Amino acid sequence: MDQFKLGMHVGEIKAWCEAVKNDAKGMSLSAPFKPEDYETLLPYMVEHSERNGVNFYHEKELIATDLFGDMDLSSIWVFVIYRRPETLEKYLKLKEDKEKLLESGSYEGDTRKDIAVHFGRLLGYSDAMIHARWS
């Protein structure tokens, strides 16, 4: 990772940690990164999470929803940044619920949209912003 890209990633990590610390967002995501960049980014994630009193989770398989339907999530990782453990629990439960729906063949229509809406709310998006994605 070149210095410019590293600087961008670190700046985003710092900003999202501060946003979560100040309750501007209950949960945030770092910019996506390649697995080979994990060891480079991890010390910065640790530093800024500790400095801001927030937690992070290393996510290797980010939930894919229609909220960000145009994103290719294959072979990318993110840090899920959160303050309260129950926020991470809600995210992991949402991923599990989606998997169960996929396995049962029920991930469609309103159920599919509900998963996307819940993910958007976890990320602190307003209902208006979430629903604008489908307009």
Topology (SSEs and partners):
Blueprint: H1 3-21, E1 27-29, H2 38-52, E2 55-59, E3 78-82, H3 85-104, H4 109-122, H5 127-132
Q: If you had to describe this structure to a student in words, what would you say it looks like?
A:
Helices cover 55% and strands 10% of the residues. With 135 residues, it is mainly α. The chain has one domain (3-132). Strands 1-3-2 form a 3-stranded antiparallel sheet, with helices on both faces. It is globular. The relative contact order is 0.16.
Structure characteristics:
135 residues; mainly alpha; 5 helices
Q: What's this, in brief?
A:
With 135 residues, this protein is mostly helical.
Number of domains: 1
Radius of gyration: 15 Å
- Work out the number of β strands: 3
| Mean pLDDT across residues | 93
Specify the helix fraction band: 40-55%
What separation lies between the terminal Cα atoms?
Answer: 37 Å
Main β-sheet, spatial strand arrangement: 1-3-2
Largest sheet: 3 strands, antiparallel
Low-confidence stretches: none
Q: What is the helix/strand order?
A: HEHEEHHH
Sum up the overall morphology in one term: globular
Binned strand content:
5-15%
